[in-house]
Specification:
With 130 residues, this protein is mainly alpha-helical. Helix content is 72%, strand content 0%. It has two domains: 61 residues, no CATH class; 56 residues.
């Protein structure tokens, strides 16, 4: 007797993850697990997204490795790793700086508008038009 069961969609997704693609730089299941930890279990991740993230991570690793390989020493050390990853680590700081600068510019604009109104009021008073 053959037992026929309806496959659970979550199980089908898990089975899909188990199939490894040698053309991808990293094990697909590991990449998917990391994504899933951040977005939650309630959302589905499309296959093309899983592959695109995997390929993008592989390309990023190649760029980092190339930069680390520019060391003057015979071995790659943590300083080389830090030098290679520094631009990516600085992105968060740059975004914070942009927000801080935009806030400062808005404050300066409000201050200049206030000064302009005060000048206009002062000169109207001096001319006797008020």
């Amino acid at each position: 007797m053959i037992k026929i069961t309806e496959e659970n969609p979550a199980q089908a997704d898990k089975n899909e993850e188990d199939k490894e693609d040698d053309s991808l730089p990293f094990p697909r299941a590991r990449v998917v697990n990391i994504i899933r930890d951040e977005i939650g279990k309630t959302k589905q991740i499309r296959s093309e997204v899983k592959d695109a993230v995997n390929i993008w991570l592989g390309d990023l690793l190649k760029r980092l490795a190339k930069e680390m390989g520019n060391t003057q020493y015979a071995s790659v050390g943590i300083a080389d790793f830090q030098r290679a990853t520094k631009p990516y680590d600085m992105i968060k700081d740059i975004v914070k700086d942009e927000e801080r600068l935009m806030t400062s510019v808005e404050k300066l604009k409000l201050d200049s508008d206030h000064i302009l109104r005060e000048f206009e009021r002062f000169f109207k008073t001096m001319k006797g038009t008020e």
